[in-house]
Design brief:
It is a single chain. Helices cover 31% and strands 19% of the residues. It has 8 helices and 10 strands. Strand 6, helix 5 and strand 7 form a beta-alpha-beta unit. The longest helix has 13 residues. The radius of gyration is 18 Å and the shape is globular.
Amino acid sequence: RVPVGQQVMHMLGWREYALVPAEGARPIDTALAPAAAYLGVLGVTGFTAYVGLFEIAKLREGDVVFVSAAAGAVGSIAGQLAKIKGCRVIGSAGSVEKVDYLVNVLGFDAAFNYRDGPVRDSLRRAAPDGIDVYFDNVGGEHLEAALESLRDFGRVAMCGAISLYNATELPPGPRNIPEVVRKRLMLRGFIITDHMQLMGDFVRDVGGWLQAGKIDYRETVVEGIERAPEALIGLFRGQNLGKMLVHIGDG
């Protein structure tokens, strides 16, 4: 069912060889984009941004959208999709270079380095009138700041909480959680495997925007399967711009 020579993607992880049943191999169209793009902008990360914004947060034209970890694989696509849909977009990142990338390459309306001071203050300066949608990749202080800035009936797509993954002691939670009730906010976590019915729409929409030059994506590539642990650790240290990839070989 899969012709010899057809490039495919699978979910078996880092390996040099794989024996995969046909139903576990998804053919990819390398005429639309390079093969590596199907691990990023046209793969799980791009699909995560698409589902989080359109299915979970119910994005609307004119929304003010805040994206944390906005220079990463998911955040960078989420911000660009929101811009395509006519929203004002604010991003946070962990370096001056990444902030410059968000504003001057991706076209974010505002961005800030979360290491420069309290996220609450930086977000308030970037969005003095508040936000409507928060795409949460970070949790922790970012989530608390977003709860303060969200306007009534705001929506939060809870994609991840990378600030907490390696914490030895977890915080008790955002100190301002009553804001959820007072402002009638919607906070919803999601896993993309619950939304696979949207994959066709995703490939059509994002693939079309990619071909039209409306989406920029970057990759940070580490060479060699033996360096996979190093690449994973680098991801948690914010050493990537866009999608972190491990290049194993050309087959």
